[in-house]
């Protein structure tokens, strides 16, 4: 299985080598489809053989030798309850994005499909990496193909979108690199025997703790880098431009896979490494999440471009995920993890659907449509299912994620009151408003443009790439336990471990060595007095 995991990660990379040797565009397309389809089927045994009872322990582990002398930096990959479903979602979306580009992209096909395959390998590597340097390499590698997908195959304003995407991601990447270097040397000194270690297993373990001052700055650095990726308000402004100008396949991968790298990083790296800072800053992160939920929904409501509307809906929906993560209880965290999958399926489907209608009419303006449900009934049904899943209709996948997040946020001990959950719930109502209003204006009413009467319904290729997404939307909505079971043990283990780790750090803190602002933020004196009281009471 270890060999299978690595082969699954790098098969798309091998596919690039093959298609670069081809001279026929048709062969390039078919080869890309075969490679991504094979990648998906190769990943299925990893799912079927996964030990749910040991989901907190990395499985299918591959551990290489140290790359540098004196430094514990090594190739280390595996899957656990946090990464498994995101890994599977990435392999599922591979053949779908290839099929979505079948007739819509005609220039430089070798380069285009090479970028899609490179992006898949990079994304799979992010979710499988268990060494933080390897994680960082894959994280950065994913930016390169997306940069070219937008910059070369994007829309009319692609240069502006590419520059904005590049600047934001560059800033986040540099900040994370500096923080990673400091963390690695600090962890290496704590481990002993090496100068530097980026082994996530050690950094996340109870054996490794880091002081409150360092936690604060490292938390802010890593959180900033990941929040840009999410993107969390107010770091979201690059996303609507990137989505609007990217080709359909680029928008689908960006929404379904790449945004999840940010929320995944918050759970994978920030929670177990900096638990005290995670807990203390949770209310502030929740404020940004709630603002993002409401702001994204309100801005989506006034959009005239349907693709930009879906882009702003992502800002709102990813705000829910962040709200669930920082509630730091089992219910909300489970909701955040499954909501990452739900958003990938529903919003990915919406971008595919927008791309299909754009290929026919070459316009994304809502006002250019109306009444087309009569002309394209199959398209209308697919659009309806994806829309209802996006707004969280019970029985479809979006409901369970939002329900768990709001439920967990309402009972969170880290949120001072119920306000965050109540305000977050308004996002559900607003989502119904902007999504259903958009749906009504596009599909119903009279046909006012004669071009719409000439529209052709979805063909078998288009139906075929939407069917898997629709099936999973329904399956998760009806039987969420089939999916949440994979992360349940992981969530319980690491939330408990992080809470215990945070208590240990506070117990060990020396008031005489801490700056006043640190002692005040973390209430060190109060905690130590309470701990001493319970010790004396026990004695």
TrEMBL record:
Can you name a GO cellular component term?
membrane
Q: Looking at the record's lineage, which domain of life comes first?
A: Bacteria
GO MF terms listed in the record are: NADH dehydrogenase (ubiquinone) activity; NADH dehydrogenase activity; ubiquinone binding
Instruction: Tell me where in or outside the cell this protein is found.
Output: Endomembrane system; Membrane
Name the InterPro entries on file: NADH_Q_OxRdtase_chainM/4 (IPR010227), NADH_UbQ_OxRdtase (IPR003918), ND/Mrp_TM (IPR001750)
- Write out the entry's keywords from A to Z: Membrane, Transmembrane, Transmembrane helix
Question: Known Pfam families for this protein?
Answer: Proton_antipo_M
Give the bilayer topology. Multi-pass membrane protein
Does the keyword section mention Membrane? yes
Q: Does the keyword Transferase apply?
A: no
The residues covered by the NADH:quinone oxidoreductase/Mrp antiporter transmembrane domain are 129-420
GO terms of biological process kind: ATP synthesis coupled electron transport; electron transport coupled proton transport
Positions of transmembrane segments: 6-23, 30-48, 81-99, 111-129, 135-153, 165-185, 217-239, 251-275, 281-302, 309-328, 340-358, 378-400, 420-439, 460-478
Q: Mind telling me which PANTHER family this protein's record contains?
A: NADH-UBIQUINONE OXIDOREDUCTASE CHAIN 4 (PTHR43507:SF1)
Family assignment?
Belongs to the complex I subunit 4 family.
* Protein known as: Fe-S-binding domain-containing protein
Q: Which organism is it from?
A: Rhodohalobacter barkolensis
Task: State the taxonomy lineage.
Answer: Bacteria, Pseudomonadati, Balneolota, Balneolia, Balneolales
């Amino acid at each position: 299985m270890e060999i299978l995991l690595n082969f699954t990660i790098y098969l798309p990379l091998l596919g690039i080598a093959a298609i670069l040797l081809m001279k026929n565009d048709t062969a390039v397309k078919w080869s890309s489809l075969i490679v991504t389809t094979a990648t998906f089927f190769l990943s299925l045994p990893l799912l079927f053989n996964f030990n749910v009872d040991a989901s907190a322990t990395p499985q299918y582990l591959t551990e290489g030798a140290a790359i540098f002398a004196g430094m514990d930096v090594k190739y280390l990959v595996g899957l656990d309850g946090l990464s498994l479903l995101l890994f599977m979602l990435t392999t599922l979306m591979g053949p779908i994005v290839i099929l979505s580009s079948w007739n819509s992209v005609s220039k430089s096909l070798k380069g285009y499909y090479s970028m899609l395959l490179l992006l898949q390998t990079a994304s799979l590597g992010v979710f499988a990496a268990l060494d933080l340097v390897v994680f960082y390499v894959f994280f950065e590698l994913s930016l390169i193909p997306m940069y070219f997908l937008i910059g070369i195959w994007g829309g009319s304003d692609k240069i502006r979108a590419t520059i904005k995407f590049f600047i934001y991601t560059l800033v986040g990447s540099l900040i994370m690199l500096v923080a990673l270097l400091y963390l690695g040397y600090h962890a290496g000194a704590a481990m002993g025997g090496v100068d530097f270690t980026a082994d996530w297993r050690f950094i996340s373990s109870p054996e490794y703790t880091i002081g409150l001052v360092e936690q604060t700055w490292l938390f802010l650095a890593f959180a900033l880098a990941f929040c840009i990726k999410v993107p969390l308000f107010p770091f979201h402004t690059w996303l609507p431009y990137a989505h609007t100008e990217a080709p359909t396949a680029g928008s689908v991968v960006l929404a379904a896979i790449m945004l999840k790298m940010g929320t995944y990083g918050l759970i994978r790296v920030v929670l177990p490494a900096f638990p005290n800072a995670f807990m203390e800053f949770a209310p502030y992160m929740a404020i940004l999440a709630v603002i993002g939920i409401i702001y994204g929904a309100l801005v989506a409501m006034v959009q005239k471009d349907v693709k930009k509307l879906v882009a702003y809906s992502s800002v709102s929906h990813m705000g829910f995920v962040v709200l669930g993560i920082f509630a730091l209880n089992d219910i909300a965290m489970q909701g955040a993890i499954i909501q990452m999958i739900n958003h990938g399926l529903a919003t990915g489907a919406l971008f595919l659907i927008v791309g299909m209608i754009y290929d026919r009419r070459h316009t994304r303006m809502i006002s250019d449509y109306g009444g087309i449900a009569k002309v394209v009934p199959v398209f209308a049904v697919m659009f309806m299912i994806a829309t209802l899943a996006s707004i969280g209709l019970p029985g479809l996948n979006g409901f369970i994620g939002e329900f768990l997040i709001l439920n967990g946020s309402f009972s969170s001990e880290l949120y001072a009151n119920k306000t965050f959950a109540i305000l977050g719930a308004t996002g559900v109502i607003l989502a119904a408003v902007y999504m259903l209003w958009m749906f009504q204006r596009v599909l119903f009413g009279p046909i006012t443009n004669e071009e719409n009467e000439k529209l052709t319904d979805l063909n078998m290729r288009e139906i075929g790439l939407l069917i898997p997404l629709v099936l999973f939307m329904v399956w998760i909505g009806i039987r969420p336990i089939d999916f949440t079971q994979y992360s349940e043990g992981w969530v319980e283990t690491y939330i408990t471990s992080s809470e215990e780790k945070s208590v240990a750090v506070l117990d060990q803190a020396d008031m005489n060595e801490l700056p006043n602002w640190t002692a005040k933020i973390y209430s060190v004196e109060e905690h130590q007095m309470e701990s001493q009281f319970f010790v004396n009471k026990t004695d």
